[in-house]
Write a structure and sequence with these properties.
The chain is mainly α. The chain has helices at residues 72-78, 83-91, 109-123, 131-153, 157-179, 187-202, 206-218, 252-255, 258-285, 289-309, 313-336, 353-360, 371-375, 382-387, 396-409, 419-439, and strands at residues 30-31, 40-43, 46-49, 94-96, 349-350, 363-364, 416-417. It has a 3-stranded antiparallel sheet with strand order 2-3-4. It has a two-stranded antiparallel sheet with strand order 1-5.
Length: 440
């Protein structure tokens, strides 16, 4: 049975006096592709034929998400620092739209004002990187690791492993920024840093993450598109998933208890599965031998702890698993609070870049002394992060008031909740979905 202490809140439309399904309150949701534009993508008022470009696209098949649609904002945000992408675009076959399709995102007043705001923020330097901030973030991880190992050798293994687990989670936050090319602004260097930080710090593959995470940013909370919804058989965040591409993986006996299994069991299973199978398999198949080398360094450090501490191999492995669990709970729980309970879109539905951020993500308030900003590495500002994924994350609190003002001008909800409320609604959603699945 459902735990009565969990009370899920239905999202409210702006100025609405009662909860309603998202499709009943969202005329901005479009369906299908304009006839004659199936093999093209619009960027800045021109249609580009992608039929022969899909396999060449460095970002993978994510480009298919934009067939017959305006990808102007996505192109700008994903390729802000890529001169190569702009050169390729100029070389591609194109034709002007001239208002024939009504697909131009600038026809939407909200998007039009967003573009103005974005250009203002870029001119004001909000997309500029900070080497000082990057140095601080790296030093912080090294300090946590040092503290963890020091505590282990001082006779406090549990506390030391918790510090190391925290460092694993912090490595996940930092590599995330490297994957968005917002550490140094140099794509090659940022991706190299991501590979090292993610490989040694978490035992995982940077190239796998980039491929999957960009799909999430392109279409957050869209069934069969957003990989963060493809979490079966261990987790199911929305009932719509049961009819999607993962429906055969649904196990009702497990999912009915997912709210209670998420923290003690699921986070560990996902972390170990990623570390021991999914990510090394990807790196091997993609011939990312550098990534495999960074993972090997991580396990070499673990193996070295056997002679260094005099502990048995079984004890060291158990300690490692415990630290992985701590890191998994830390990072997966904090990612879940910003999306998983928000409304979803059907596979054939679509909204604008801004509406994906406003309707399908939410912020977590910074809290007293801005502690949540540190705890979530500024990714508690998910609305700003989805609007400006290439912006250094520590700048999100600075631009938040201007984003809020933009949303208020257009009557769009700016969803920001306390950390406690965010956790409550996240686990309430897990509990509700598990209950609904069990009842069929």
């Amino acid at each position: 049975p459902r735990n009565p202490k969990y009370q899920i809140q239905t999202n409210m439309a702006p100025n609405a006096d009662k909860p309603v399904p998202i499709r009943a309150r969202a005329p901005h949701i479009s369906k299908g592709v304009p006839k004659g534009f199936e093999n093209e993508v619009m960027i800045d008022g021109a249609w580009y034929n992608i039929e022969n470009f899909v396999k060449k696209h460095p970002g993978g098949r994510i480009i298919n998400f934009y067939r017959g649609k305006d990808a102007s904002e996505a192109f700008t945000e994903f390729h802000l620092r890529s001169s190569k992408a702009k050169k390729w675009l100029k070389a591609m076959e194109s034709r002007p739209d001239n208002g024939k399709s009504n697909a131009d995102s600038k026809l939407d007043p909200l998007t039009k004002d967003f573009v103005v705001l974005r250009n203002q923020l870029e001119k004001e330097g909000f997309f500029d990187v900070s080497y000082t901030h990057v140095a601080y973030r790296i030093a912080e991880i090294i300090a946590l690791e040092y503290a963890g190992f020091s505590l282990i050798f001082s006779g406090f293994p549990i506390l030391g492993l918790m510090f190391i687990g925290l460092a694993t989670g912090r490595s996940g936050w930092l590599m995330h920024e490297g994957g968005h090319n917002s550490l140094t602004g140099n794509i090659a260097l940022d991706q190299l840093m991501q590979v090292i930080i993610y490989g040694v710090g978490c035992g995982m593959s940077g190239s796998w993450w980039r491929n999957q995470h960009n799909k999430h940013h392109a279409t957050p909370q869209k069934v069969d598109h957003d990989v963060d919804l493809d979490t079966l058989p261990l987790v199911m965040f929305n009932m719509k998933v049961k009819d999607g591409k993962q429906k055969k993986l649904l196990n009702k006996n497990w999912i009915q208890f997912q709210a209670y299994l998420f923290t003690p069991v699921t986070c560990l299973l996902v972390s170990m599965f990623w570390q021991l199978y999914l990510h090394p398999r990807h790196a091997l198949r993609a011939k990312r031998y550098g990534e495999l080398a960074t993972m090997a360094v991580r396990y070499a450090i673990v193996a070295a702890m056997i002679p260094a501490t005099g502990a048995s191999a079984a004890s060291v492995i158990a300690g490692y698993v415990f630290s992985v669990w701590v890191g998994g709970v830390y990072i997966f729980t904090n990612f879940a609070v910003s999306h998983s309970h928000k409304p979803v879109l059907e596979p054939e539905e679509d909204v604008s870049w801004v509406r994906y951020a406003s309707d399908h993500t939410m912020n977590v308030d910074p809290g007293p002394f801005n502690w949540v900003n540190w705890w979530m590495s500024y990714l508690n500002y998910q609305i700003e992060h989805h609007l400006f994924p290439s912006m250094p994350q520590f700048r999100h609190p600075q631009v938040s008031p201007r984003v809020r003002a933009l949303f208020e001008k257009h009557g769009v909800e700016y969803d920001s909740r306390s950390y406690v409320d965010a956790l409550k609604v996240t686990f309430a959603n897990l509990d509700k979905v598990g209950h609904d699945v069990w009842l069929g």
